[in-house]
Design goal:
By secondary structure, the protein is of the alpha/beta class. About 35% of the residues lie in helices and about 15% in strands. Strands 2-1-3-5-4 form a five-stranded mixed sheet, with helices on one face.
Length: about 150
């Protein structure tokens, strides 16, 4: 799991929160990486791990209610992240990693407040906890709604 986001920017810290949860209590068959706001800097680590599946988790403005979770098609990512807190668009990272990773899934969590020094909202915290619990249960990603 590659967590993306900035913990200092309110709900944009969704990915880093999931990373922290996975560090505190590891989940069988999952390795957590904190990509922060420059996840492309973690590409070499992902490649070295040679996972069959990579889950990328980030806050994503999808026009939904705060805390809503969606599996996002990679072709939509470029359109969604015109304004981004990341150094490079995530679709570039995904295209790079597709050469080495069989399956890449992108899970977006709808933020409410993305602003410096704001706390994460309860709805986004709950969404992160839901994803953590889902990973613990070894859930099937086909159950996720897609965007």
């Amino acid at each position: 799991m590659l967590a993306v986001g900035n913990a200092m920017m309110g709900d944009d810290g969704a990915g880093p929160l999931l990373y922290r949860l996975m560090q505190e209590k590891t989940i069988e068959n999952w390795t957590a990486l904190d990509g922060g706001s420059a996840p492309e800097n973690s590409a070499h680590i992902v490649r070295a791990l040679k996972p069959k599946r990579l889950l990328i988790v980030d806050a994503a403005d999808m026009g939904l209610a705060p805390g809503e979770i969606r599996l996002i098609d990679k072709d939509l990512i470029a359109e969604m992240f015109v304004m981004s807190t990341h150094n490079l668009p995530l679709n570039f990272l995904i295209e790079q990693l597709e050469e080495d990773v069989e399956q890449i899934l992108f899970v977006g969590i709808q933020p409410d407040i993305v602003s410096f020094a704001f706390p994460m909202t309860e709805k986004v915290k709950s969404a992160v906890q839901f994803i953590y619990d889902f990973l613990q249960r070894q859930g099937d990603f086909a159950a996720f709604k897609t965007l």
